[in-house]
Amino acid sequence: MALVADMGSGNMRIGLCGDALPAHVFSTTIEDNAIPPIVRGNNINWDSVEKTWELAYSKLGVESPVYPTLLADCPTIRERDRAAMAEMMFEKFGIPAYFVSSQSVLSLFSAGRTSGLVMDLGYGVSHVMAIHEGFAFPHTIGRIELGGNDINRSFRMLLSERSIDISESMTEEWKLQHGKLAYDFAQESMRCRLDPTKAPSMKLPDGREVSLQSDHLRACESLMQPALAGCRGMGLADALWDAIEICDNDNGPLQSLSQFVLGVGGSSLISGLEMRLKREIDSRAGRSRDIYITCLQAPERHHAAYIGGSLLAGLPQFIDNNFVHKAEYTEEGERAIHKRCC
C-alpha cells in the first residue's frame, strides 16, 4: 500500500493507491501558508510545502513513516527541486520509500494509454508534452505561462469593467458552465456584442440577471492568446503545434505520437476546446491532419495525475521493484531518484 499525492499550484490531492479518486482535495493556499507551496509549477516555497504535507497527513489520519509515497510533479520541475523534495520526504517525514513521476505521464496512464501527446491545463501553468511508452521527452515540452487561475482573473476583470463583482468560487463555476473557446473568436464575439441576447445570462447573488455579452469568450480566448489575460509567451495551439512538428520530424518512436492528443486539467472542461484546436492545427498544417484530440470526462480530468499515480502504485510488485527505498537513498542520495523516476 502506498500514499499517492498530486501537489499543484492550486490544490493538493491525496489518498491511497487503488482509490478511484483522491480521498482529500484541498487548497494549497491554507491559513498557515502566506505563500502557496508551488507557484506556476516551478517556483517552490519549501516552508509552505512542508506545511502542506503536514496537513495532508493529518487529513488522511496517518503517520508519514508508515506509507511509501508516490508524488506527481510538474513536467518542467528542476532536478535540484525534485531532489530537494525527495530529501524532505526521507529526512523530514521519514517515509520508507518514494517515487515521483511527471503529472503528464500519470495523466496519460489514467486514460489507459502509455503513448501520446498530453495537454495539461493546470491552475497556474499549462504544458504540452510527448510521452512514449510511459517515458516523457523533455525536448518536446511546450510551457504556456497561463493557467485556469489566469482565465478566472481575466473573467472577473472583464465583469468588473461593467460593475459586476463576483467571488472566486462563482467565477470558476461560471467559467466551467458558460465559458467557451470560440471556433471563430472574432465572429462570435462580435455577434454577442451586437446582440447580447445571443450570449448566456447569469443570475447574481443579489437577484439581478446579467448578460455575459462576449466576456465568456474573451476570457477563454486567452488560452490561445495569453496576452489577453496579461500573460506572456505562446498560446496552447502554438505549443501543441510545436510538439506535433517535433514528433513529425523524429525518425524514431515519436513519429506517430501526434495522432492522439489528450487534454486534462480543470480548464479542459471549457466548451469548444477540441474543435478549436483541430481548426488551429489544420490551419497551421495547410491541410486536414489525421489527429484525434480528446479530453477526459469530469471528474476524472480534474484528478487525472492522481488517478494515474493510484493505478501505477497499485500494480503488482511496482512498489518493491520501482520505488526508491530508504536504504538505497541513504547509499546513493539524489542519484537514485534521477535514475529510477520518470
List the helices and strands and how they pair.
Elements: E1 3-7, E2 11-16, E3 24-27, E4 38-39, E5 43-44, H1 46-60, E6 69-73, H2 79-92, E7 97-102, H3 103-110, E8 116-121, E9 126-132, E10 135-136, E11 142-144, H4 148-160, H5 168-178, H6 185-194, E12 201-203, E13 209-211, H7 215-221, H8 236-248, E14 260-264, H9 273-285, E15 292-295, H10 304-313, H11 318-322, E16 324-325, H12 326-332, H13 334-340
Parallel strand pairs: 1-6, 6-7, 8-14, 14-15
Antiparallel strand pairs: 1-2, 2-3, 4-5, 7-16, 8-9, 9-10, 9-11, 12-13
Summarize this entry quickly:
The protein has 342 residues and is α/β, with parallel strands linked by helices. The chain contains 13 helices and 16 strands.
